[in-house]
Write a structure and sequence with these properties.
Distance between the termini: 39 Å
Mean pLDDT: 97
Bound molecules: nicotinamide-adenine-dinucleotide, uridine-5'-diphosphate-4-deoxy-4-fluoro-alpha-D-galactose
Shape: globular
Structural class: alpha/beta
Low-confidence stretches: none
Largest sheet: 7 strands, parallel
Order of helices and strands: EHEHEHEHHEHEEHEEEHEEHEHH
Amino acid sequence: MKKERILVTGGTGYIGSHTVVELQEAGYSVVIIDNLSNSNADVIDGIERITGVRPDFVEGDCTDIAVLSKLFTDYPDIKGIINFAASKAVGESMHKPILYYRNNLNTLLNLLDLMGPNGVKGIVFSSSCTVYGEPDENPVTEAAPIKKATSPYGNTKQISEEIITDVINAGAPFKSVILRYFNPVGAHPSAEIGELPNGVPQNLIPYLTQTAIGIRKELSVFGDDYNTPDGSCIRDYINVVDLAKAHVIAVERMLTDKTEDKIEIFNLGTGNGVSVLELIHTFEEATGVKVPHKIVGRRAGDIEKVWADPAYANEVLGWKATSSLADTMRSAWAWQQKLRERGIM
Ligand code: NAD
Ligand code: UFG
């Protein structure tokens, strides 16, 4: 039996597209809205090839409330939202703060404004481990203090969490599950979808795979003078399909009233901290392909080290990241090679 319809904002993007696959495979109907500012509509073909179902797609900007209002009129059956639409590059946000505040906050405000009148029961929000700032202790639990954000991007996630909390505490007739992702990497095992940002990649893995295949000359490692064993930054790299599956569980909890509170917050990570240099070596060992790289200066806004304690999500959601980092690196490489085969990159 078909389940409810879910609105996925930013659904042609990296995490959004993998989540649409998992939602459709779990029986949900999906409508995507995306302005294609950091993705391509061809992603929808990839989703259809994997699932056999073509999700509905609206090209539009979530900062435009008239566009969203029309979408809710056209799809009166939307019962849940997953809000991926946002600008997401930590470094870029240091140079373009207005873009980040406007895009990320106006999108969220518009959705929250329209949910009640349109009978939407819940919203899953893509938050980030950047809300912890530079944590005092690793691994980080959800109870760790929210410290001053190191970038405007991180600040938009902190403010977004506060906005959701204020709106729900003011009596809004819906729920929210806030998911704090650590660093999603890799691609769908079919290599039909993966990470393909527009322009020069800002994130480590797409830059790394584009270097490995020869599109970029060398990967810059931003800093080797951090207080870490090899001097490069440490993150918790989580497989994107593992991450996507957690969204289906979150949606199910909201729509079947299984949530324990009107707002729930979960860390989504593996629990393992991996340095940039270790990640490069894992990629090289897993694929047999060398990645030319050089050490350069630190990138403004970067956090030194952060990794998750995922125990709360493991227990309450019954969810766990299971993919190995080597398999995840192989999936990222298979995707990059598929793009080459298709003449895209
Ligand atoms: P992405 O850039 O691949 O996907 C975001 C999508 O949203 C893109 O397709 C983009 O075109 C679209 N978009 C942006 N602004 C929009 C707007 N105003 N209206 C409509 N569409 C818009 O990014 P992603 O990696 O898939 O990230 C998804 C979400 O997860 C973001 O909110 C991001 O901040 C968050 N997040 C990402 C990471 C990560 O490392 N990738 C980590 C933590 C949190
Ligand atoms: N890095 C490099 N060279 C590059 C790109 C990145 O050395 O060319 C390093 C960064 O300095 C950092 C690590 O690789 O130490 C990961 O960088 P990313 O840009 O891939 O990821 P960030 O941790 O900066 O941020 C990402 C997303 C955010 C999200 C955050 C959660 O872009 O949206 O993960 O940790 F909030």
